Amino acid sequence: MAIKIIPAGKFPALRLNRRAASLLTHAILIVLGFVYTYPFLWIFASSFKTPGEFFSSGLSLIPRQLNLNNYVYAWQTGHFDTYFFNTVITTVATTLIVILLTSMAGYVLSKTSFPGKKVFIGGILVLMFLPAGYTIIPTFELVQKLGLLNSLLGIIVVQAAGGLIFNTLLFMGYFATIGKEVEEAALVDGANLPRIYWYVMLPMAKPMIATVGLFQFMINWNSFWIPLVFTLGNEKLRTLAVGLYAFVGENSTGWTYVSAGAVMSVIPILILFFFLQRYFIEAVAGAIKG
Amino acid sequence: MGVSLLVVGAILLSSCSFLGVGANTAGSNGDTVAIEYWDWWVTQGPTIDKEIQLFEQVHPNIKIKKTTQVVDRYPELLQLAIKGNTAPDVFLVPEKPTFIEQVKQGWLLPLNKWATKDWQAQFPPYAFAEGSNVIDGKIYTVPYEGPGPWLQLYINTKVFKDAGLVDAGGNALIPKTWDDVRTFAAKVTKASGGKVYGFGFGDKQKTILPWQLMMVQNSGAPGGNSGLDAREGKYTWASNPVYLDWIQFFMGMKQDGSIIPNAMSMDDEMARAAFADGKFAMLIGGVWNQTGWAQTHPGFKDYAVAQLPYEGPEQASYFYQSPGGTGWAISSQTKHPEEAWLWFEWLNSKEAAVRWVKDGQGLRIYPEANKLEYATTPQFKQFMQIAQTDIRLGPAPNLEHPEMNEVKMRQTLPDIQNILEGIYSGQISDWKGALQDLEARQNAELQQAIKETQARGINVDPKWWVVPDWDITKDYKK
Amino acid sequence: MSTQSVATVRKVLGFSIPWNPQHLLKQIKKNYWSYLFLLPMAVLVGLFVIYPMVASVHITLYDWNGIGNPTRFVGLRHFFTVARDGLFWNAVKHTFTYALVLVPIQLTLALALALVLNNPRLKGSTVYRAVFFSPVVTSAALVGVVVSLLLSSSGMNLSMALVDAGIISSPIDWLGDPRFSLAAVIGVGIWHTLGYNLVYFLAALQSIPKELYEAADLDGANAWQQFTKVTVPMLREVGAVIVFLAILGSLQVFDLVLVMTGGGPYFSSEVVSTYIYHYAFTPASIQVESNVGYASAAALFMGLLVMGITAMQLVAVKYAHERRAEIK
Fold first, then answer.
1. Rounded to an integer, what distance in angstroms lies between the CA atom of residue B379 and that of residue B387?
2. Which residues fall within 8 angstroms of residue A148, CB to CB, at 6 or more apart?
3. DSSP label at C169?
4. I need a labelling partner for B401 at 20 to 30 A (CA). Which of A169, C45, C195, C292 fits?
5. Residue C268 sits in the same domain as residue C309
6. Are residues C93 and C199 in the same domain?
7. Contact C247/C103 with Cβ under 8 angstroms?
8. Does residue C237 sit in the same domain as residue C96?
9. Residue C77 CA: distances (Å) to CA of A130, B201, B454, C293
10. Which of C14, C41, C47 sits opposite A101 (nearest CB)?
11. Which positions ≥6 away from A218 have C-beta within 8 Å?
12. Of B17, B49, B74, B1, nearest in space to B361 by CA
């Protein structure tokens, strides 16, 4: 017996045959997708344009020539090789720390009860509302006292702290959807909290880990101010986003170089996204089998 | 398992390799000294890079490491670097905080050891001024820029010629008064059938409409778009009729349809590109436009530079220059003062100044460097000629009374740039009322700031702001 | 304090344990793993979030230009000035408009898109997901510049075409027109961060067990019924968090507005974060100083305002629930 497709929630069950519905969906997605990524495509096209073309070519996506100079110039002036390495280290480390710490906290806050839990959650919520204010100077002084100024570790620690509150809430919400039975089964087997966390909860949280990981990676990959401030004394430690700003001037900006630099910065993220995509699907498939 | 190993590994790696590595190495190879240099110059960057190359050839044991920081955050970054004990050895002095404050905070190194009388003598007399760049006899910096109007009118001569705005010799006409501008602009728009406009600007970032307002500078408003008239020591937005006259002229041009419609959503860079693409005929900007077009529109040569038009019938005032000024300075934290001085001296040398002028970056403080024959383009020459005529010496009471620098006014919005926006977009209909309100608020704020400064125990006299004997058509002499 | 009032306070704070010190200690010891798991996060937050925040509260009491140390004490004056500043409330109005228009539209679109892209039968869903995610990947500043450039030039062409067609009488400069500037920014905002919520919804959808859909299918439910009876209830918890975070995030919009319109023209698209920026980093006007103290006070004021509004809403919701429970 033919298995009925569960149509996407966007369309009610159409009497039209499968083919037409599928084609229509694809058509709409393609058009929507094109309009949607237009500015992004435009930046990509601009990375090949000459400086004057950037302003004069209007909406055009086709550069007059495939000018690779922008890439060469951006790579050299922006010191992309060193900065790339630094960015990878800071971003990966920050992301891993955030995932670990927030999943731990999120799990404990959603699945266990202990004195002070409600106060802690309330505190997190309050912190979400309060604006950062002008905190760069106290943060700078603190990092200086800890001896972490002008080091990658300093950047990692400060950046990681910035992602802790938001993502703890996310994990908390996510773990709340996982039923008690799973935990109770593990408890029956005699597991203590860390074991449950590591062997049961984390594997179940793969989609959220992937999500948090992706976003933290992306935010920190593009992060500019913290890496700049905490490497003022040693330019060898700078990151890609900081390098891009070398082209932003007082009255003019080398926009074609910025575009080339942005494209070069973005490719690793897109690769990561593709990679995590497959992870999503595998995780779901694994869940079905289990 | 793998995850935790990765985390530990990443942290160890970064801390081992990079924990607290300092910046300035006094030559691990023994002799080479690295000098850290900061500025915010992107378009002038290539000229500075050339200077670095030339300097390193003459001084092989010194390496200059240039960092160009984003101009908006420059003061903050400089402060943080100083706090972290990694200040650059030589840097461009930022406009904020005030120079006096930078000296008070101990940021700058006094240069008297090397800035001997002979060295000072090569500069024109107005380069040094006690209270401006010399504090209590200690020299900290010297200006690099020479006197001249910082804004000019740019005319796309091809568009003018196409519209028939030419003189007997076939050269494009140069507008001298506001009426000229309005008439020419209307003619360009009409002649092109509405395809090309007479006038344009790009005010997306809100600072460019005040540049247009600077057309009052030559028209009897000596404070320009600051609104302050030193002859009265107060803000004169409404009491000086020139400001309202200008608004009526400019809005008249808008109603004529002569201004490009997307002026409020373009930024200045985009407007400059549109000008070079021939989309409109007249643009107000500074000398940096020229090096900008050299990069973005290398073939673009059909433009002329003129001084800002005045209300008429005669030019009633000028751009004014005060003595002193800032340029580069050496950090008080520098570990290599001798080498830092060598780089500082080089940057401020006459030879470097001539190269700067030849690159079309602007005027330098040495009159000898600003010779007309150094101009490499006819437009830069036009700019130099304007600089020779459209400038006078103005009064600088804060040099005589340094306590005036302690008076800190608070921002009161809407400011003139907001008001100009509101008028242009039609949100403000009572132009005179808005100007009166601004004048009242800013004068009140100034008096309030003076009172608060007096309350802090600093002796300031409101009369110091008033310079009644100033003839705005001549150089000011005390 | 009477036992009655202590009980009330504890109820409000949500304590469900009896007030018994020995019992309390036992509970703490029993749950030591929980505390250990919270510790690293709490330490980092305490050092790098709470401490700087507290330190920055102290500067709200000063006039300070950001250089050196604050010396000009003004007490609570800034808070009163902010409360009386019409431009501040104008910015608040725009900020809430931005958030309350953007979030429903964007989340609906994101959920719809997530439902479409979640279908394992859809070929190339991986590619589509990357496509709809990509705007998020570039920084708001660069995106803002490019989009405002495109809107400015093609917007002019569009409005000229409208003039030629006789629909409007004179050209409209979309981003530069006070009637449209905020709307344009909202539109771009919806587009820019939709990818985030798309991915969140995708993750949430994938946590819903397939068996539930299969069971509903066997019961003869159609797609819409499955959506309302299976998907929506299962999404509630995560969905609430997503909505909450989306609103909070939108209230903080900054780069996009600053780059596209600068808050103008004449404050018509000014939001709280740009208002603060204008006071903390005023344009170079030599007589006027930046006032980081005032800017921080405005930021704190806004934070407290938002907290207050949320708290009031939570109390109202709780009150409504309790009344309904009582009525039953």
1. 12
2. A154, A157, A230, B19, B20
3. S
4. C292
5. yes
6. yes
7. yes
8. yes
9. 20, 39, 19, 11
10. C41
11. A269, C136, C137
12. B49
Q: Kindly state whether residue C40 falls inside one of the protein's structural domains.
A: yes
Where along chain A do its domains lie? Answer: 18-71, 78-247
SS3 for A42-80, per residue? Answer: HHHHHCCCCHHHHHHCCCCCCCCCCCCHHHHHHHHHCCH
Q: B304 by DSSP, 3-state: which? A: strand
Q: What's the average model confidence in pLDDT over A174-194?
A: 78
**C188 and C49 within one domain:** no
For the record, the structure tokens of B145 come out as 């820029």
Residues A181, A185, A190, A193, CA torsion sign: negative
Give the SS3 label for residue B211. Answer: helix
Indicate whether C98 and C136 sit together in one domain.
yes
Inter-chain CB pairs, A–B, below 8 Å = 134
User: What is the topology classification, in CATH, of domain A78-247?
Assistant: MetI-like fold (1.10.3720)
For B105-142, how does the pLDDT look when each residue is reduced to its tens digit (9 = 90+)?
Answer: 999 999 999 999 999 999 999 999 998 999 999 999 99
The closest CB to that of C13, out of A55, A119, A258, belongs to A119
DSSP class per residue in B133-166: TEETTEE--EE-BPSS-S-EEEEEHHHHHHTT-B
C52 is a domain residue = yes
Q: Is B263 an 8 Å CB contact of chain C?
A: yes
Question: For residue C74, is it within any domain?
Answer: no
Q: Could you give the C-alpha distances from B275 to A60, B214, B305, in angstroms and in order?
A: 19, 19, 13
Segments in chain C forming alpha helices (H): 3-13, 21-30, 32-45, 51-58, 77-84, 86-118, 125-137, 140-164, 181-206, 210-218, 223-226, 232-251, 255-260, 272-280, 292-327
The answer for residues whose C-beta is within 8 angstroms of residue A279's C-beta and 6 or more apart is A206, A210
Q: Is residue C141 in a domain?
A: yes
Single-letter amino acid code for the residue at C293:
G
A51 lies within 8 A of chain C by CB: no
Q: What is the percent of chain A with per-residue pLDDT over 90, rounded to a whole number?
A: 22
Task: Give, for all 328 residues of chain C, the pLDDT tens digit.
Answer: 555 656 665 565 555 555 677 787 888 888 888 889 999 999 999 999 999 988 888 889 998 888 888 888 899 999 999 999 999 999 999 999 999 999 999 999 999 998 888 877 777 777 888 788 888 877 777 888 889 888 898 888 888 888 888 888 888 888 899 999 999 999 999 998 898 888 888 878 877 878 888 888 888 878 788 888 788 888 887 788 788 889 988 998 998 999 899 887 999 999 999 999 888 876 545 567 888 899 999 999 998 998 888 888 888 888 888 887 877 6
Q: Which residues contact C158 (CB under 8 A, 6 or more apart)?
A: none
C183 and C51 in a common domain = no
Q: How far is C87 from chain A (nearest CA, A)?
A: 19
Residues of chain A that touch chain B, judged by Cβ-Cβ distance less than 8 Å:
50-52, 54-56, 89-90, 92-93, 96-97, 100, 136-137, 140-141, 144, 147-153, 156, 228-229, 232-235, 237, 245-254
Query: What pLDDT is attached to residue B17?
Result: 43
Which residue of chain C is at minimal alpha-carbon distance from B77? C67
Q: Domain range holding C52?
A: 20-57
- Number of domains chain C contains: 2
More confident: A85 or A207: A85
Give the residue from C8, C35, C57 where a domain finishes: C57
C-beta separation of B212 from B174 below 8 A: no
What digits encode the pLDDT tens for the residues B219-231? 999 999 999 999 9
Q: Does C51 touch chain A (CB under 8 A)?
A: yes
Do C24 and C96 share a structural domain?
Answer: no
Cα distance between residue B382 and residue B375, in whole Å = 9
* Domains in chain B with CATH codes: 31-147+323-393 (3.40.190.10), 148-319+397-478 (3.40.190.10)
Residue type, C95: T
- For the cut 70, the answer to whether the pLDDT of residue B13 exceeds it is no
